[in-house]
Write a structure and sequence with these properties.
Length: about 160
């Protein structure tokens, strides 16, 4: 079910984020314009041995891009726009924290939607390791790619 697959994805994400340098790498990729939720989904696919496929990448992007543009990015922009003023205004700071929680919830929903699409994609022996990571991250972010390269296996 979607709830079970979302739980597996949450476990994977927690394991991944526990590794040194991963959070900083995700922030670097985000600053470079990458869709970190899409990257996390790609890392999950790499860890499961699902070979990269341009058509499947397109399917993921078809789900991810509208949600990112219409939901996640506006919430992030609002939160960032309030950063300086919120440091001087307790009420605004409290609202900013609520916006941050909405942003995180929107990202969790995006990940759930991506995983719902990809959860039945089969493993493929002999496929290049980290192919999803390479396809979904900007080439200029080689340090971030390096930090994310060792996939975390989940059962």
């Amino acid at each position: 079910t979607r709830k079970e697959s979302s739980a597996a994805s949450d476990v994977y994400k927690r394991q991944l984020y526990a590794r040194p340098g991963v959070e900083a790498a995700c922030l670097e990729l985000q600053a470079a314009g990458a869709d970190v939720c899409l990257v996390l989904c790609g890392l999950w696919l790499d860890s499961r041995g699902v070979g990269h496929d341009p058509d499947r990448e397109g399917q993921l992007r078809h789900i991810a891009e509208p949600w990112r543009q219409e939901v996640v990015k506006p919430l992030r922009a609002l939160r960032q726009a309030w950063r300086e003023a919120a440091s001087q205004d307790a009420a605004l700071n409290a609202l900013r924290k609520q916006v941050k929680q909405l942003e995180l919830e929107a990202e969790r929903e995006q990940l759930a939607r991506l995983q719902a699409l990809a959860q039945t994609w089969p493993q493929q022996a002999g496929k290049r390791l980290n192919a999803w990571l390479q396809a979904l991250t900007p080439e200029a972010c080689s340090d971030a790619r390096q930090a994310l390269q060792m996939p975390v296996k989940i059962s």
